[in-house]
Write a structure and sequence with these properties.
Chain lengths: ~80, ~200
């Protein structure tokens, strides 16, 4: 398998959806290819960074407004 | 068979303010990215997120609570964001015909033998502080915003909201293969933007 093809299989590989045969060929390529290993590492680093977008904090005006709304609900249901 | 109410929903129904505050923080990031997928303006996206929580509060008694809070919120955000987008008539960029065989890596990076001309850089030497700096995250956010909507949806739902593949295919009404290809294209585009930034 060529690097040019391997890079297009990386998501399938990470998802676990390659056929057993394709997976064997993919892994065989990966044991000998620095370039594709570097690229896969970059993809993983990208995914880790993307995941961090979930850590964005709640802005204060929204937080206060929503806590107030929750307290109002609580009071009404006491 | 006993069906448990989701623990977070149960906490909210008890009026647990600390739990509510913690949930706001936990879900804010992916809710914002999801809302931003459909509405362009960050303020509009914030409105959608706030409205979603108000909907949760208003519906706490009615909602049966057998799905998770996250699944429930996901549906609310999608509906509100799409409704808001219809209202604002955001002009979406034209998305080219989906081509399964198009390359996600510039073909010029490979020789005629199909192998890398030059090995991609390792990022292991990039300090973690830089990888996670606000400027880097902003570049990644911009790269996601620049994606065609069909790709943006999938990377936000899979990689930011961390929903699983079957939940995403179900909600978006696409095949598992279609989902994987969109995810592949999205990740490759963001990787490329990150590579350019770090170079």
């Amino acid at each position: 398998m060529k690097c040019r093809e391997i890079v297009e299989l990386m998501t399938d590989y990470l998802e676990g959806t390659l056929s057993p045969r394709d997976r064997a060929r993919f892994e065989e390529h990966m044991t000998g290819c620095d370039g594709c290993n570097a690229y896969l590492e970059q993809l993983r680093a990208t995914m880790n960074t993307v995941r961090r977008l979930a850590d964005e904090p709640v802005p204060e005006p929204m937080r206060s407004a929503l806590l107030d709304a929750f307290r109002d609900w609580k009071t009404a249901h006491a | 068979m006993a069906e448990e109410v989701d623990r977070d929903i149960a906490a909210l129904r008890r009026g647990d303010e600390a739990a509510f505050a913690a949930l706001l923080e936990r879900h804010h990031g992916w809710m914002m990215r999801l809302a931003s997928t459909y509405v362009g303006d960050p303020h509009a996206a914030e409105d959608v997120v706030q409205e979603a929580w108000l909907t949760v509060i208003r519906s706490l008694d009615r909602f049966e609570g057998r799905s998770t809070l996250k699944t429930w919120i996901f549906g609310i955000v999608m509906n509100l964001a799409r409704a808001r987008r219809r209202k604002e008539e955001r002009l979406l960029p034209f998305t080219s015909f989906f081509d399964r065989h198009a390359h996600t890596v510039d073909p010029a990076r490979f020789g005629s033998d199909g192998m890398w001309r030059e090995r991609p850089q390792t990022w292991e030497n990039v300090p973690e502080a830089k990888m996670l700096a606000s400027e880097t995250l902003e570049k990644v956010r911009q790269a996601i915003e620049a994606l065609p909507e069909r790709h943006r949806e999938v990377i936000v739902l899979r990689d930011v909201a961390e929903l699983d593949a079957s939940e995403v295919t179900g909600r978006l009404g696409i095949s598992p293969e279609n989902q994987r290809v969109r995810l592949h294209r999205a990740r490759a585009a963001v990787r490329k933007a990150l590579e350019e930034y770090l170079a």
